[in-house]
Design goal:
Layout (H helix, E strand, L loop, with lengths): L2 H30 L7 E4 L2 E4 L1 H12 L10 H31 L6 H17 L13 H15 L8 H13 L3 H4 L4 H14 L2
Antiparallel strand pairs: 1-2
Helix pairs in contact: 2-5, 3-4, 3-5
């Protein structure tokens, strides 16, 4: 076998092995999560998936106090309201607009972008006169919303027309423990991110 053939054979084996590893991991993942949803945690034998569900579980089990997820019914109701707002009102239009353009390669949809602006406007108004999403104290609602707004920011969405959101975003970055460390981008991720942005510009 010549050098070129050997190279092709090695590339095939590498791809084939990676595929088998991925299928094996997928099969193992399906055993603990039949919906194959990320994120998923296994905590001392207990399996749970879903961003907001995991946030609620972790603070209730490991929180030193109830500041992040208050036990007071009214305060907790406000936190839950913002969690649902994030899931259904703020995150969904982002997925409808950006993900469809990236993965389905659809053209720009002004109506879909209008829904994004409307959702961000709701969030901006809701922050009026308070420091964080559910009042003047940091809660799990802020962590959930931060994941969404950080993604908007990564896609170069302009927060300037939403001053309350912009201020909340910067405040939360400084307040949330480990934010900068968690959001550090590797060179590989930066390259992937640039490719995604280049698709949006076409």
């Amino acid at each position: 076998m010549d050098g070129k053939s050997t190279s092709y054979a090695n590339q095939y084996l590498t791809v084939h092995n990676r595929r088998n590893q991925m299928l094996q991991k997928k099969s193992e993942f399906r055993k603990i999560n039949n919906q194959e949803i990320l994120p998923t945690i296994v905590d001392d034998g207990f399996t749970l998936w879903g961003c907001r569900e995991i946030l609620q579980y972790l603070v209730e089990k490991y929180g030193k106090d109830d500041s992040l997820y208050p036990k007071d019914p009214q305060k907790r109701a406000l936190v839950n309201q913002k969690l649902y707002f994030d899931m259904g009102t703020l995150h969904q239009p982002f997925a409808d607009y950006y993900f469809k353009r990236i993965f389905a390669k659809t053209s720009i949809d002004p109506a879909a972008f209008k829904k994004i602006e409307e959702a961000m406007g709701f969030f901006n108004t809701g922050l009026e006169g308070q420091l964080f999403a559910a009042g003047d104290a940091l809660t799990i609602a802020d962590f959930s919303l931060m994941a969404t707004v950080s993604t908007y920011d990564a896609f170069k969405f302009d927060l300037t027309p939403y001053p309350n959101v912009a201020q909340w975003f910067e405040r939360s970055k400084k307040t949330m423990p480990g934010y900068e460390e968690i959001n550090q981008k590797s060179s590989e991720m930066e390259e992937y991110h640039e490719k995604i942005l280049s698709r949006l510009q076409k």
